[in-house]
Amino acid sequence: MPTGYAAGMTDPEKSRRLVGVIGLGLMGTAITGRLLELGFLPVVWNRSPDKAVPLVAQGARWSDNPLAECDRIIISLFTSDIVAEVLDQMGSALRAGHYLIDTTTGEPDAVLRLGQRLASQGVHYCDAPISGSSEQTRRGEATVLVGGDAETLTACADLWPVLGCQTHHCGPLGAASRMKLVTNLVLGLNRAALAEGLAFARAMGVDPAAALGVLRASAAQSKVMEVKGQKMVANDYSVQARLSQHRKDVEIILREGTNRALGLPLSEAHLLLLLRAEAEGLGGLDNSAIAKLWRIDS
Q1: Do 112 and 74 sit in the same domain of this protein?
Q2: Cα end-to-end distance, the chain, whole Å
């Protein structure tokens, strides 16, 4: 039983420790691990129940519908459309007073539509995408972007440190989803630039590991170098965040740019690289595998 479940704990205290988790991909699994580590009891659900098995063995609890058992639920799914579909499937258990924290990197307009529908049922919904990989989330090093009202922010105050070491309230519902797209645009281009730079180093006869060390000590330094640089140098593409996930995000970014009559030529070029990487079978690898397009591992 996780830390915090003392025999004398009152029912309200136990209720606060119960937290639903819908979606057990890389990020949902990392979030569940954090909840267990910090003394919560995660009540988990995933379309493929087998993903829950190791988490249940660690102390999580399976539920066919966490909405029926928890007041507060963290959602971590692939797209906003899937979030809406899953909530429709579980909707009979939705009730006024529920707090839903949606960590999905989704489309801002879809987030707003879903939030308006849930608000009509008395459900508190906020978008809270996480800036950072599943590994950074697992270590408590990610940054949480939150869009929603002050009441929801306060009611879930004890959960923000579970999701990351920093929380930024970006504004009303949808603001965090917009900010996440901004961060993902810059982050993805940083990864592509690093991959190309390391390939260029090798072509110039410079050892990529040595180049990475100099880059990290120079004005070119970025967080990407700390998180993904060594993976690229070591040809380690074990998954922290899948390349295909970021391709999906770049497609959203470009749609949002088009909707605002803003050309994003660097992101357009980036999408072509990601599509090429998927065509070469790299979509299921870590997003650092974009480096394989330059064959720096040859």
Answers
A1: yes
A2: 48
The verdict on 188 and 142 lying in the same domain is no
- Cα 133 from Cα 198, distance rounded (Å): 21
Q: Considering its fold, how many domains does the chain have in total? A: 2
Digit-coded pLDDT (tens) for 34-45: 999 999 999 999
Task: Report the distance separating Cα 99 and Cα 85, nearest Å.
Answer: 18
Residue for token digits 């480096």?
A: 291
What does the buried/exposed string (b/e) look like for 178-191 if buried means 16 or more CB atoms within 10 Å of the residue's CB?
bbbbebbbebbbbb
Other beta carbons less than 10 A from residue 173's beta carbon: 25
pTM for the model stands at 0.92
Mind giving me the DSSP string for 43-90?
A: EEE-SSGGGGHHHHHHT-EE-S-GGGT-SEEEE--S-HHHHHHHHHHH
Helices 208-216/175-203 angle, 10° precision: 130
